[in-house]
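Re: the request from the purification team.
They wanted to know what the chain is likely to look like in 3D before they choose a buffer screen. I agreed to run a prediction and write the result into the notebook, where they can find it.
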Amino acid sequence: MADSAFAVLFQQSLDSEASILFLRRSNGEWWLPGGKQETTDTSASQAIHRMVAEQLTFSSWHPGGIGRWKLSPEAGGHTVHLFEGYLTHPAKVKIRDVTSGLTRELAFFTRRQIWNHLYEDSDMPWGQAKMAVYCLYDMYKHGKRADGQLLKDDLGELHGLTWSRPA
């Protein structure tokens, strides 16, 4: 199976709660922008730029690589690359190719909304939610979040029993 790359794109500034962009796929599930790397991609960074440009319309973003996971053979055995970035004009973000039927809509979700889609609505895969929450934690670790109680809430959710694989 080919490696994949996903982008965690943030809407809000550092002084408010972060909202992360998700795309609703044709099967009804919410996913981060990205997907499988193609053989023509020269790097994971180049792949995520290509995929985001194919899926969305907006001016620009500068991704920072924050994570890479090697999945078990049972989960496909491939590597997943994770990038983060901030959108300067989130209201201008649109789905580029609505005719393919692969992506039906987009939305920005806070950590609480991600939790709801994962556990209550059951329309977000565990891996997608996990990458988004990991990105929130990475931002905290590197001093990129400074929103007081919301930050403490993020860490409580991350380290508590609340974030576990749904049954």
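For the purification team: Residues 8 and 70 are 18 Å apart (CA to CA).
Please add any questions underneath this entry.
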